[in-house]
Amino acid sequence: MLTDALKESIRDAYARVRDGLPGFRSRAAQTRMIAEVARALSQSGGAAVIEAPTGTGKSMAYLVAGVEVARAMKKKLLIATATVALQEQLVERDIPLYLKLNGREMKVALAKGRGRYLCPRNLRMAGNSLGESGQMGLGLDTDLALWSKPPAERDKQVLRKLTDAFDHQTWNGDMDAAPETPGDMLRSMITTSAGGCTGRRCGHFMGCPFFAARRAVADADIVVANQDLVLSDLTMPGDDDNWGGVILPKPDETLYVFDEAHHMPGKTIDRGASEVPLGTAVRQISRLARQVHAAYSLTDKEVIGKLTLDAGDLKLQELSDGMEELEKEIRQSWMPDPAEIEPMYRGSLGQLPDNWVHHATVLDVAASEVQRWLTTVRRAVTEMSEGGPTQEALSRELGMALERIDRQVRTWRAWSNDDPENAPPLARWVTLSNDQQLVCHASAVSAGALLRNILWDNASASIMTSATLSVGGNFRGFADAVGLPDEAVTVSLPSPFDLGAQARLEVPAFSALPDAREQHAREVTDWLAENLDWDAGNLVLFTSRAKLERVLQCLPIDKVRKVRAQGSLGKTQLIAEHVAAIEGGKGSTLFGLASFGEGLDLPGKLCETVVITQLPFAVPTDPVGATYAEWLESRGRNPFLEVAVPEATRLLIQYCGRLIRSETDRGRIVLLDRRVVTRQYGGQMLKALPPFQRVIERTS
User: Fold this and answer.
1) What architecture does CATH give domain 274-443?
2) Domain 499-696 carries which CATH code?
3) 282-325, pLDDT tens digit by residue?
4) CA distance 526 to 94
5) Looking at residue 140, what is its pLDDT?
6) pLDDT at residue 342 in the model
7) Which helix (H) or strand (E) segment is 633 a member of?
8) Cα dist. 434→281, 344, 404, 498 in Å?
């Protein structure tokens, strides 16, 4: 609990930060946040959600409270973020600064997923397998070849450079700090997933960058990770029938801080989603059969996992035939509209046709049997004392095949199982890809139940924080989305800035609403051409690439030359060019989509006007959201007012937050969507926005 001694320790730590940082200003919102974080983390099973606007000093607040509580309780402190940029800021700047100011000696580790580290085994295999023609040079079966096609000359050069840097220990294998950036194909070859890794049995285990990082995490007092990795760990079965603690510290020994927590509902849902592209899956089963034959031959075993090779072949054939039967059934009963750009069949309330469910039930049994047998086959290959490069390649391929089979098991189980009563159903749907392949999908529609199970009921204590979690101080939507316990604390802190004096919100007198696409795009173009200060720094946000490109096409060429549009270059380079232009006294305007509306930090003259072209409502065809909306309607609730409006409001607040980044910033936010004036829900959205000065033009 929060003892007097611990309170004193926190006060002293804050005083040292306050006195040690040049220009530090005490803020009531920050001290309140420190108190709330300390109170939640010091309780067994403590939980809190804290909304802290830009300028609060969130990271220093949760470090002051979190580090001192973790030390007193002899727990690990784990900070999870949604972006690499914030992880690097914490590890390279904020945490070292805090520890230095307080004279603390604590071990800090940055935890990343396996795919962000070089796999030395795959690096060797990629290099050794290159013949002069760019084909495999080991004499292995083509099903074990790493190179799916002859590599480009640049791939060979990058591979040689990375190998040299790793061998001479001038690079530690962190892919984010690679001396040369590999292309997607090469990167996938020289990294590995969990399924493709053989762990301690690998000959490169002691020099493996991932396991070196994992050992550092095990020894660390403070761990910084991304939310995806934390969710991955928390959904792994741990010791004593608990979840988590496989990659990261055990949940009951850990205090969790989730920064940028508005991403948690979506990331949690994505974590549990699964899909099976039927045509590709059938071809992969055919390839897997040849790999299994190689495994029986290499191990010189007649029976593995209680199955002879012939019996195993039969299991694989049953799985392949089952998928072909399902595909035939779907194609016979679903005729996609040729006019649809992305054809989709979605089960209403998650319910699929009975024949599809029957086939999925058969496939669930078949895929589960293959999964158990293949696990034993791979173990037999991996445990061989001497197998050479063929053994390594085969272990890798069988491991990756097991990951694909696992996705099948999860998909077919989701398709065949009944939904629990009084809970949202799973979303179940089928899409038709550009190459006319059927893809079967399944996903939860709410993260609440899973987070209650793996986090809130499992962790020593947890807090979530972000600049936008509520709608005007109402946390109901976010609390439902993350399954927040009833006893948890929710706090919305005030902005430390004088937003009424620093910023103006304008709603121009447009005649067209966004649903009149062409007319609205024309009015957006005209307004930008005539009213934007093109010699200043601006950010224009769109909800669709189509509208962004349409406006760009219609703008006068002298204006287009000052636009830097998302997608034309990498985000980092685009922003660097924008900054250079503004600092060079030239105007620059960024055109961006949703990712530019969150997390972008352009203080001062870098951004003096933010234009929001329309309210950021979710795409109505999203199958997960549509299924959840149906379920709410079936219970007499209004999904638009309960889900769509609050989520769009939260995003709108995020977008507005791109403007004022410090106490000296000044500027305007222009909303080119009259629905905030003409629709009843618009008044609620305006009310939830920060207290900017407002100029709402009247239409004639």
Assistant:
1) Up-down Bundle (1.20)
2) 3.40.50.300
3) 999 999 999 999 999 999 999 999 999 999 999 999 999 999 99
4) 44
5) 47
6) 87
7) helix 623-634
8) 16, 12, 21, 51
